[in-house]
Design brief:
Elements (H helix, E strand, L loop, with lengths): L5 H22 L2 H8 L3 H7 L3 H20 L9 H18 L3 H9 L4 H5 L4 H16 L8 H8 L1 H12 L12 H15 L2
Helix pairs in contact: 1-2, 1-6
């Protein structure tokens, strides 16, 4: 039996996410992935039993990396402003270092993989963020609102900027490149919208 090659596994993971983003789940195949990685299809089956196992395993592993990145240096006891700013800093850094990750998860969110992948999202992340929000509410730093409203205001702007950046253009086809200035200008507006 052949042994696992960590470098090949990483290449497979990154190429798989890239192909899913570029070709969609319908256009993704194990054959295309093997070709893009310069390996045989048989090599892929050392790591994964089939296409579904490959996509699911990669998504679960990447969700753990994303969660760990988001929570780096985060403490649920932080003030709301400081905690949200750190979340933006961590998420922005993650998005720039893993450009295919968020669009990969977007593809999965509207597919049959949604339940398998998102059910396994890190429970610790949800618990930590729940405690952070409870603390902010108790201190009167934010008003009570549905989670969907909070997320739409708190993080959607950052994800939109990252998407514009990845596409190289914004609304109307204008050229766009993300910058620290734009990110933090947007953050200031988000913080104003969320705080009483």
């Amino acid at each position: 039996m052949r042994t696992r090659d960590v470098e090949k596994e990483e290449l497979v993971k990154h190429k798989a996410m890239e192909l899913v983003v570029k070709d969609g789940l319908e256009g993704f195949s194990v054959n295309k992935l093997a070709k893009a990685c310069g390996i045989s299809v048989a090599t892929l089956y050392i790591y994964y039993k089939d296409k579904d196992d490959l996509i699911t395993a990669i998504a679960i592993e990447e969700s753990k990396i994303m969660t760990s990145s988001s929570l780096k240096d985060f403490d649920p006891e932080m003030s709301f402003a400081d905690g949200l700013k750190l979340q933006w800093k961590n998420r922005y850094k993650y998005m720039m270092e893993h450009p295919y990750s968020i669009p990969f998860f977007e593809q999965l969110r509207t597919s049959t993989y949604e339940e398998k992948v998102f059910a396994n999202m890190n429970v610790e992340f949800k618990k930590t963020m729940g405690k952070f929000m409870d603390n902010a509410l108790k201190r009167g730093e934010i008003n009570k609102m549905p989670l969907e409203v909070y997320w739409s205001i708190a993080f959607s702007p950052l994800y939109s900027l990252a998407k514009f950046h990845q596409n190289g253009k914004s609304i109307g086809g204008h050229p766009f490149t993300i910058s620290n200035k734009i990110v933090w200008q947007t953050f200031d507006l988000v913080l104003k919208a969320l705080t009483p």
